[in-house]
Amino acid sequence: MRLCRFGEDRLGLIRGDAVLDVTAALKALPSVRYPLPRHDPLIAHLSELRPRIEAEAVRAKPVPLQDLALQSPVANPGKVVAAPVNYRRHLDEARADPEIHHQKQVAEIQQAGLFLKATSSVVGVSEGIAVRHPDRRTDHEIELAVIIGQQADRVPAARALAHVAAYCIGLDITVRGPEERSLRKSIDGFTVLGPCLVTADEIGDPGNLDLELAVNGQTRQQANTRDLIIPIAGLIAFASSFYTLQPGDILLTGTPEGVGPIRPGDVIDARIECIGRMKVAVRTVDPPRD
Fold first, then answer.
1. Rg for the chain (alpha carbons), in Å?
2. CA distance 263 to 284
3. What CATH number does the domain containing 258 carry?
4. Are 95 and 87 in contact, with CB atoms under 8 Å apart?
5. Residue 110 above 90 pLDDT?
6. Residues above pLDDT 90, as percent of the chain
7. Which domain holds residue 59?
8. pLDDT tens digits for 61-83?
9. What are phi and psi of 103, to 5 degrees?
10. pTM for this structure?
11. Which of 13, 16, 77, 18 is nearest to 49 (CA)?
């Protein structure tokens, strides 16, 4: 199943190049009141909603996917957990490029650990990426994004993939500099998720997916998830040993070599096998809010 969010928080089921509006299925979600849950209700009840989504799809009129403004496929992630330098060749390039390491030792992921990104950084394809610090280098990083479907507390790697609801493409955008990763990667719009969530049953082996990123038609990153230093199941086990993962939490699995700068006016074309592709525009930052 491929689900997207579009327009004014509409839910769509993607079939081919068309989207079927199945928003009415959300009426079956349990009502919530303060204090609000720390998870995403749609992801938490996704398996129960599947029959209703399929029923609504029968009645829906197809709309071309290309005509829709896509939001993040997950509306309310409780946290975004990210894996640094989780491809060997990216570790090598980070250590070799002073604009990346800024005189800091770049440790292997087993020593560096994971880090958190602000949930306010999460956006969808249509919102694009706003360069907030044009005087500093801002880089693209393509990653397979894992969407947690069941609570995971200290789960072993052997059972970790059973806690996954879906996958999507993730762009982990970063400003280079001496500050901590979490600060430089948590800017508004610096976690782009899309174009849709693809449920785990459609993916097959998430540890053998080709991924590719191009900027303005020029390929910069190209790899396969089999090249991950810590594979997906190991990352879930690692993360859940520190945090209890909740439905809707996002795990960014790391980026391969080839990271590079982006500037306003650029267009990023990101593709991951079995998921699809998304084109994301880079723009100048909006005027400050009052």
1. 18
2. 8
3. 3.90.850.10
4. no
5. no
6. 87
7. 2-71
8. 999 999 999 999 999 999 999 99
9. 65, 15
10. 0.95
11. 13
Contact, 148 vs 29, CB < 8 A?
no
Residues 252 and 79: their CA atoms lie apart, in Å, by 11
DSSP assignment letter at 179: S
Q: Which two tokens stand for residue 126?
A: 């249509």
Angular region, 178: left φ>0, alpha ψ -120 to 50, beta rest: alpha
Q: Does residue 102 belong to any structural domain of this protein?
A: yes
The total number of residues written for the chain in this structure: 290
Token pair recorded at residue 42: 């749609």
Residues 47 and 167 reside in one and the same domain: no
Same-domain pairing of 11 and 126: no
Residue pair 166/199 in contact (Cβ under 8 Å)? The answer is yes
* Same structural domain, 64 and 100: no
Tokens of 269: 């074309």
* Spatial separation of the C-alpha atoms in residues 6 and 165, rounded to whole Å: 20
**pLDDT tier for residue 116 given thresholds of 50, 70 and 90:** very high
